[in-house]
Write a structure and sequence with these properties.
0% strand; mainly alpha
Length: 321
């Protein structure tokens, strides 16, 4: 009887949690789109409807780019997770989009790690989180490498006024963090975790070079797709910047990616960074905010809506006895 009650209670709490996540996600999306700020959703609709270049074909093409963006993200996750468990594309889709919805209100998508791990047996969850870290690190690595190249070109060409105090603080924090990690690896308490560390090293060695190469390739394809999507939106809004646009876009993604944020407010951060960067190129603020909002709706709001279905369909994995 106690086991039955415990099971029923667990299932009831799981249903409440799933409903809570979906309701919270929809509330944050609604709040972000319709809050009374400097740039309201009504302004976005007014600007979009005033450009005849934003046709049905253009919208379909933009949706196709968003589909490809998340298709390669799902392929990346399927490739990584197959190191420990065979999953279908449908399962990888449910895990990727479901985790996206569940992590909307967490800083820097940190909830994505726990959400994906919940799809697997407890003894596999540490490995799942580590695989997720590899995937996110590959994406961040591509963003950083191409972003630094763009940032250097952008700085040399436009000579923007930089907040060197902020850069110094950020660099200092990064150095302290890296130093702390090095100290942790060399500290005495780490010796007690040597067995776990050896298991991690062994697991890393089981990940093939082919898997790593495919992960980096999928990350690069995603970057190229959403960067081109941003560029295409600029052209739809009659912003013609040619080469300078790609340099500015890569700089924007670099700067916005290193700023800690709650994922649902990612549009605010990218909007602020984009307004400053493209302002130096003479692009009006309303147009840039419209592009950023459009990107946010296409690549995060719509996938999150689809992901809410997968959240509601989520079931805890059966425990292997």
């Amino acid at each position: 009887m106690l086991k039955a009650i415990s099971y029923k209670t667990k299932q009831f709490l799981l249903v409440l949690l799933k409903l809570g996540l979906v309701v919270a996600a929809f509330y944050f999306i609604y709040h972000k789109l319709f809050e009374k700020g400097n740039f309201q959703f009504e302004n976005f609709l007014h600007i979009v409807t005033n450009f005849s270049s934003i046709s049905s074909f253009a919208v379909i093409f933009l949706l196709l780019l968003s589909f490809l963006n998340w298709y390669f993200e799902i392929m990346k996750w399927q490739t990584l997770v197959e190191c420990i468990s065979k999953v279908t594309f449908s399962q990888a889709t449910a895990q990727t989009l479901g985790a996206l919805t569940a992590s909307l209100m967490t800083p820097n998508r940190i909830g994505d790690y726990g959400a994906k791990a919940m799809y697997y047996q407890p003894h596999l969850r540490k490995k799942i989180m580590f695989l997720n870290l590899i995937g996110n690190s590959a994406q961040m690595g591509i963003t950083t490498i191409l972003g630094v190249i763009g940032f250097v070109c952008f700085t040399l060409h436009f000579q923007p006024t930089l907040n060197y105090t902020g850069i110094f603080i950020w660099a200092t924090a990064a150095i302290i963090t890296i130093s702390g990690l090095i100290w942790a690896f060399r500290a005495n308490w780490f010796g007690k975790k040597r067995k776990s560390f050896k298991k991690l090293i062994h697991f890393i060695n089981t990940i093939s070079k082919k898997t790593i190469i495919k992960t980096v390739l999928f990350s690069l394809l995603r970057y190229l797709i959403f960067s081109f999507q941003f560029y295409y939106l600029l052209s739809l809004f009659d912003v013609n910047l040619s080469y300078n646009a790609m340099v500015a876009i890569s700089t924007m993604y670099l700067l916005s990616s290193i700023i800690p944020s709650i994922f649902i407010f990612d549009v605010i951060i990218k909007g602020g960074v984009a307004v400053y960067i493209f302002g130096l190129l003479g692009v009006p603020e309303p147009l840039i905010l419209s592009v950023v909002t459009f990107m946010w709706i296409l690549n995060f709001v719509l996938p999150s809506v689809i992901g809410s279905y997968h959240v509601l369909q989520f079931k805890l994995p059966k425990t292997v006895s």
